[in-house]
Specification:
- This protein has about 80 residues and is α+β, with helices and mostly antiparallel strands.
- It has one domain (about 1-80).
- It has three helices and five strands.
- The protein has helices at about 10-20, 45-55, 60; strands spanning about 1-5, 25-30, 35-40, 65-70, 75-80.
- The chain starts with a strand and ends with a strand.
Length: about 80
């Protein structure tokens, strides 16, 4: 994951999804205007392991879609790219 160089405003749906995820670490995607919590965990170590699996299994299918990725680390929320 790398931060986006010129991030846009974070949509309110992402903020609401982050609040309702219930986990301090989460990857939330905005796919066709709808937020989805894709990867989440209570610790960074578990999150990183789950993220590697997600990147291998799910990310290739999203390459052609109009999708934005957001990383929540418990305190901050930022848009990222892969």
């Amino acid at each position: 994951m790398r931060p986006v160089k010129k991030p846009l405003l974070i949509p309110s749906g992402i903020v609401k999804a982050a609040g309702s995820a219930g986990y301090p670490y989460a990857l939330i995607i905005l796919l066709d205007g709808l937020p989805y919590a894709e990867v989440f965990a209570k610790s960074r170590k578990v999150f990183d392991a789950n993220l590697k699996d997600w990147q291998r299994d799910v990310l290739p299918s999203l390459r052609r879609s109009n999708v934005r990725f957001f990383f929540i680390d418990g305190r901050t929320m930022s848009e990222v790219t892969f």
